[in-house]
Amino acid sequence: MTRFDPILLDARNPGPMTGSGNNTYLLASAGAALLVDAGVGHPQHLADLDRALTEQHASLQTVLVTHGHTDHASGAPVIAAAHRTAAFAKHPWPDLDARYGITWQPIGEGDEVAAGTERLVVLHTPGHSPDHLAFWHEPTATLFTGDLVLLGGSVMIHWSRGGKLTEYLSSLERLLALEPRLILPAHGARVENPRALLVSYLDHRRERERQVIAALGAGRATVQAIAESLYDGLAPALMPAARENVRAHLEKLKEEGVAVDEDGRWTRRG
Length: 270
Hints:
Blueprint: E1 7-10, E2 23-29, E3 32-36, H1 43-56, E4 59-64, H2 70-73, H3 76-82, E5 87-90, H4 94-97, E6 104-106, E7 112-115, E8 118-124, E9 133-137, E10 142-146, H5 165-178, E11 182-185, H6 194-217, H7 223-230, H8 239-255, E12 259-262, E13 265-268
Parallel strand pairs: 3-4, 4-5, 5-6, 10-11
Antiparallel strand pairs: 1-2, 2-3, 7-8, 8-9, 9-10, 12-13
Helix pairs in contact: 5-6, 7-8
């Protein structure tokens, strides 16, 4: 098997929604380097990046951003100021992209991005956000999955900012079909058993859908009421994410004709 060992660089941004912080990954080959995700511009992250580039005798050519959420993209301006020849690339999301003051190189499904002799294939994997990308290293069956999955937790489907559960489930199914050997996520530890994790994520969403339908059947008619019943005991800081997930499930059920929304009050059809 081809040796492939991206360098993990901690973005230094722990918090309620980011856990221990974001992972960014440096891939260096033949004097060229590529960074997956930009972090938040923390000075130590920038120092770690510079040290790794020096150790690898490489210059930063490209920064690939999995999606436009601030913990993945807001560090781009600081990196750009320090690495003036680097290109910054992501799938377009016009409503969000302009806030960072970066000239983004648009990339999308099927594109290939090189770092020296290594190449990553771009996969459009929407659902968590409309612009979400994963990056596939085919020789080693390694996936950089951004915010699609993480060990020991679940992912928010950010409905109010373009997230869509039907697309998210399709993205998970697509990754499962690739049969990856290793997943490098944007949060948490590397995933040595990708199939088990992807299957568990799909099962979790199916179970959550059954719970939402049951809550509707029990007369809980608002996003808030359903979220409180399903996420009892959840830390208050995480309840907004829980409400986003519930709304995403409700919107999927509405698309399928299972649920009805009447001015914010939801009922089960039939």
